[in-house]
Structures are given as structure tokens and as C-alpha cells.
């Protein structure tokens, strides 16, 4: 028998928090497309179904899919039985944009964010439950110890804010960490101003050696080291904003070695 894949999900049990999360989506327009990731037994789902949303849910656990369809018959044709990381985003609502919401499995929460960022043209808003440490990292400003790759990549396209914090006693099974709900709202202008692929490469490369000055980290990547004479390269990556990284990419791109 093939073993089921476990994503370390902890199911919310606090009705008040579930209601607040469902109310946290800013856009409440008629027929707003909403995708819930990992509904489990539908604790959050039941509140979302009360909204005037065009709603769908994606669930990777076959037992949960059967439970949801039995408990909420209106979900019969609205559940996608699939791992979200394997989902074709363009097919969810036939190419239309959609909001994402959910109590995300902690083991893949960062991967969910990266997939959202890679399809930011389709996802104008996200409300999600994360391990608090991850939530803080996503919305951390430059200069903080938690500011890192995921902070820069998300903040390049989204504005973030914390909605609420949730203790372990509000889940079954209780996680060993605190949790937090954050809301990400896509920026009005998502034109990055540089090559996105190079941007991601530079951000990841510098944070892989976050204690080093950028000049030392980037030296192996360029054909002409003199381009690194700018004072920007005296900084470490956690000191730089998204705009700073864009400036660096635009400065370096003509001198980058082929990868």
C-alpha cells in the first residue's frame, strides 16, 4: 500500500479565529474567485461558503476529500483533489485571477508562497496561516534578523501585514510553535524594473552568504570586478530593500557571467 504524503498540517479548532480569517480577505466583490488550500475537515471552509465567493478548494488527502463532499454536499464539484504544488494555476478559474486563503501545511508553506510569487499576475491577494517564524520572515523589513530571501521575493510584488497570532492550543494536534495569519496584497505596480530571473538569482546568491559583504559574494559572478566599486556593495544583503536589489541587478546584468 502506498504511504500517504504528510505535510505536517495542524487543523484549526477555534471558531472565532476561523471566522476572522474568512473575513480577512479585503476583496469581497460579487463573484470574487477564492481558492482555499488544504481545507482538511472544512473548519474554515464553512465560513468561506457563507460568502458571496466563486469558491474552490484544493486538498491532497483523499480521506479529507471524501469527508468534505459528504459533510458539505455543495462542494461536490468545487474540490480539486491534488497537491497544490502540482496545480496548474492558469486552470483553476479558467485563466481568471483568484485570491488564496488557508491554514497552510507548515512543511510546504514557503513553497506555496514561492508558487504564488511566480504567478503574481494571477493572485492579487493571499490570507494564510503560517508558523509565526515564517510569517514574521515574510513581512520583515530590511535590517531585521529575520529578513531573508522569502522576504525580498514576496515583498517585490506584495505588501504584507499581520492579521492575528494564534497559540498552539487552538489546533489539533497542537503544533510545537506559535502561528500567525498574514495578508499579502499585490502592489498596484508589479513592474520590477529588471530581469526577474536575474533578480531571484542575485537575491538567493547573496543571502546564501548573508554575513559577507555583497562585493565578496558577487565577485565570482561578474566578468569585471570594477563594477563592484559602488558603495552599495559594502552592504550585507539583509540591509537592502527590494529597490536596492533592483538597482544592483540593473548595475550588474551587463557584467554577469553566463549561467
Total strands: 9
Question: How much helical structure, as a percent, in the residues?
Answer: 25-40%
Secondary-structure element pattern, one letter each: EHEHEHEHEHEHHEEEHHH
Number of helices: 10
Total domains? 2
* CATH topology descriptor of the largest domain: Rossmann fold
Overall 3D form: elongated
What would the keywords be for this entry?
single chain, 259 residues, alpha/beta, Rossmann fold, Helicase, Ruva Protein, domain 3, 2 domains, two-stranded antiparallel ribbon, 9 strands
Description:
By secondary structure, this protein is an alpha/beta fold. It folds into two domains: about 10-185, Rossmann fold, CATH 3.40.50.150; about 195-255, Helicase, Ruva Protein, domain 3 (Orthogonal Bundle), CATH 1.10.8.100. Helices cover about 30% and strands about 20% of the residues. It has ten helices and nine strands. A seven-stranded mixed beta sheet has the order 4-3-2-5-6-9-7. Strand 2 (about 30-35), helix 2 (about 45-50) and strand 3 (about 55-60) form a beta-alpha-beta unit. It is elongated. The termini are far apart. Residues about 1-5 have low confidence and may be disordered.
Sequence-ordered SSE layout with sheet pairings:
Blueprint: E1 11-12, H1 15-22, E2 32-37, H2 45-48, E3 53-59, H3 62-71, E4 79-81, H4 89-92, E5 99-103, H5 109-118, E6 125-131, H6 132-139, H7 149-155, E7 158-166, E8 171-172, E9 179-186, H8 196-207, H9 214-218, H10 242-252
Parallel strand pairs: 2-3, 2-5, 3-4, 5-6
Antiparallel strand pairs: 1-8, 6-9, 7-9
